[in-house]
C-alpha cells in the first residue's frame, strides 16, 4: 500500500469506514465466534490458503486455527494486529492507512512499538449495534489487503446468516 496516491488512500479509508458502518451485528456470542472461525477455515481449505485464523472475544481467544504452510510468525502477526485493533477500535488496515494521508507512517511515531502492535490489514473489530466492539476477527498469511478482504467477506456472511 505504500505506492498509493493520496486520493487512493482517501478512497481506501472511506471504503473501510463504510465497512465498519455496514458490519454492525445484532449480537456476537461464542457460538457466533466459532461459526465465523469455521467459515474462514472452510474457505481456507476450499481456496487452498495458507492462513492462520483467530477470533478473540473480549480478551479470550475463542477460535484459533493454523493451516498447513503457516508458522509461528503468523501467530505473532495475529497477536500484534489484534492488540492494535483492541487499542484503537478500528480495523488494523485503517490504523496503517490514516497516517499515510499526511505522508507518514504510524510505525515512525515514537510510542508505536512494532514488537507489540501491527498496523497491517487482517484484523477487523466485531461490532455489535448499540454496544460497539466486542471481539476481533483476524487472518494472517496473505497480502494485508487480502487478509482484510477475507475477514470482511466472512463478517458479511455471518451478518447475512450464511455462516
TrEMBL record:
Domain of life: Bacteria
Pfam families for this protein: HbpS-like
InterPro entries named in the record: PduO/GlcC-like (IPR005624), PduO/GlcC-like_sf (IPR038084), YBR137W-like (IPR010371)
PANTHER family noted in UniProt: PTHR28255, UPF0303 PROTEIN YBR137W
UniProt-listed NCBIfam families: PRK02487.1-5
Name of this protein: UPF0303 protein
Organism whose genome encodes this protein: Actinotalea fermentans
